């Protein structure tokens, strides 16, 4: 390959902390003035007697109320927009399965900035114009499709918009087109490997894969390492959400020690999800994001519900943009069982330590008479024995380690490979069948 720079946009990627914060304040002030063109934000500021001029420092951001997903639903479809619809060229929306969908509008400039951010992420992990990029995300309203598509094109790669599903076709594209960079959610990356095994394809010998961008669902470090070993790639964690545009919000660098959040686009806060007060760097809390480089629909102090932490210290890569840890789950996805707070990612971290196990698992919550219980079903690896004594010993060890992690004793069931439901979209990890007594 050509001897390229390590940085897609050196001017922005290599800013010092002071330069980052100076730019953030400048862009925040401009964003606040733009927000006064939004009926929603104008009324919210007026109701509490706040004006953009009251925000003189980055610390003053805390004077502004939080924005929530419910606010987006209540103002559906265009009540938060800061520009007229004739200035917008695209919208994306969520599925809206529990009420009105959330709608995000984009101007032409917004789309250009989004493409630049995604290209910056992919470049950071070593993708170059000579690469072939394959996107296994859904297109349409789902931002993972077009977000990565335009970013990969902006970088200059040959792109394969394969979209979601049809694993055998995905693998044919990978082998026939010489795909080197893939975007996939973690559970689907595992599914691709399983189908490769069924088809007699060795990812090390029969493909040119080298980079995998993963995200969109919580996953453990153990799951990442397993995917790397299976496919022979370096797998880099990414974070994005449709309310913030989509992919491109934060991405790991080659150090794989946290995701750099692009602070020339966003201001990040980590708050206690109960008190909504800020927590120190290194402590887990709910991530709150403010957009500072968006025209159509800027969002102020948006509660993402995602749980993570800011990783203290500097990254050896030389970038000073803050790093956030992989998502630990969502504050609204927490399982409460017998008064204990549990996140599915805790269970995955334990399961992925056992090489005898496959990657597919299902957590079922149910009520036995009057007590709630948890059953963890996990597939065995294809090459593991069916010796009853060994399986019994393995079940006991898994149960013990899960108890140590979540402080409860679940029922562990080892099941045959391929017996749990497979999905081309996000994997269903929790099934709640509990009875709720009044």
Give a written overview of the molecule:
This protein is an alpha/beta fold. The chain has helices spanning 10-13, 17-35, 39-48, 69-74, 108-124, 143-155, 167-177, 186-199, 203-206, 221-231, 344-351, 388-406, and strands at residues 90-93, 103-106, 132-135, 158-160, 181-183, 211-214, 234-241, 246-252, 259-261, 266-271, 285-291, 302-308, 310-311, 323-324, 329-330, 335-337, 340-342, 357-368, 371-380, 411-415, 430-432. The mean pLDDT is 92.
Q: Count all strands and give the number.
A: 21
* Average pLDDT for all residues: 92
CA-CA gap between termini: 65 Å
Radius of gyration: 23 Å
Helix count from the secondary structure assignment = 12
Inertia-based shape:
globular
Write the layout of secondary structure elements.
Elements: H1 10-13, H2 17-35, H3 39-48, H4 69-74, E1 90-93, E2 103-106, H5 108-124, E3 132-135, H6 143-155, E4 158-160, H7 167-177, E5 181-183, H8 186-199, H9 203-206, E6 211-214, H10 221-231, E7 234-241, E8 246-252, E9 259-261, E10 266-271, E11 285-291, E12 302-308, E13 310-311, E14 323-324, E15 329-330, E16 335-337, E17 340-342, H11 344-351, E18 357-368, E19 371-380, H12 388-406, E20 411-415, E21 430-432
Parallel strand pairs: 3-4, 3-5, 5-6, 6-7, 18-21, 19-20
Antiparallel strand pairs: 1-2, 7-8, 8-9, 9-14, 10-11, 11-12, 12-15, 13-14, 16-17, 18-19
Helix pairs in contact: 5-6, 7-8, 8-10, 11-12
């Amino acid at each position: 390959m050509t001897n390229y720079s390590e940085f897609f946009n050196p001017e922005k990627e290599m800013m010092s902390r002071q330069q980052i914060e100076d730019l953030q304040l400048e862009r925040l002030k401009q964003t606040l003035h733009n927000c006064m063109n939004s009926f929603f934000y104008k009324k919210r500021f007026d109701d509490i007697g706040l004006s953009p001029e009251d925000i003189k420092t980055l610390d003053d951001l805390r004077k502004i109320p939080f924005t929530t997903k419910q606010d987006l639903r209540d103002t559906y479809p265009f009540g938060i927009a800061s520009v007229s619809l004739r200035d917008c060229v695209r919208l994306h929306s969520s599925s809206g399965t529990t009420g009105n969908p959330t709608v995000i509008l984009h101007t032409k400039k917004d789309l250009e900035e989004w493409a630049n951010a995604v290209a910056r992420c992919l470049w950071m992990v070593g993708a170059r114009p000579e690469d072939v990029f394959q996107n296994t995300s859904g297109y349409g309203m789902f931002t993972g499709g077009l977000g990565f598509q335009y970013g990969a094109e902006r970088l200059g790669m040959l792109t394969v918009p394969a979209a979601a599903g049809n694993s055998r076709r995905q693998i044919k594209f990978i082998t026939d087109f010489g795909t080197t960079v893939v975007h996939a959610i973690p559970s689907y990356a595992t599914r691709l490997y399983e189908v490769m095994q069924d088809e007699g394809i060795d990812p090390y010998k029969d493909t040119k894969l080298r980079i995998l961008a993963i995200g969109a669902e919580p996953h453990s470090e153990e799951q990442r390492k397993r995917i790397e070993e299976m496919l022979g790639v370096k797998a880099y964690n990414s974070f994005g959400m449709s309310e913030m545009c989509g992919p491109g919000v934060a991405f790991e660098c080659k150090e794989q020690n946290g995701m750099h959040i692009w602070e020339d686009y966003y201001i990040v806060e980590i708050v206690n999800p109960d008190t909504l007060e800020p927590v120190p760097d290194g402590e887990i809390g709910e991530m709150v994001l403010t957009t500072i480089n968006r025209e159509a629909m800027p969002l102020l102090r948006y509660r993402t519900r995602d749980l993570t932490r800011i990783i203290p210290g500097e990254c050896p890569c030389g970038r000073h943009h803050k790093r956030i840890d992989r998502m630990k789950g969502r504050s609204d996805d927490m399982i409460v069982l017998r008064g204990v707070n549990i996140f599915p990612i805790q269970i995955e971290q334990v399961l992925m330590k056992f090489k005898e196990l496959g990657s597919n698992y299902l957590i079922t919550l149910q009520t036995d008479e009057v007590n709630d219980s948890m059953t963890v079903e996990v597939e065995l690896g294809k090459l593991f024995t069916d010796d009853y004594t060994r399986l019994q010993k393995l079940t006991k060890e898994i149960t013990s380690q899960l108890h140590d992690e979540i402080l409860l004793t679940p029922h562990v069931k080892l099941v045959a490979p391929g017996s749990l439901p497979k999905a081309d979209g996000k994997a269903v990890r929790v099934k709640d069948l509990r009875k709720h007594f009044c």
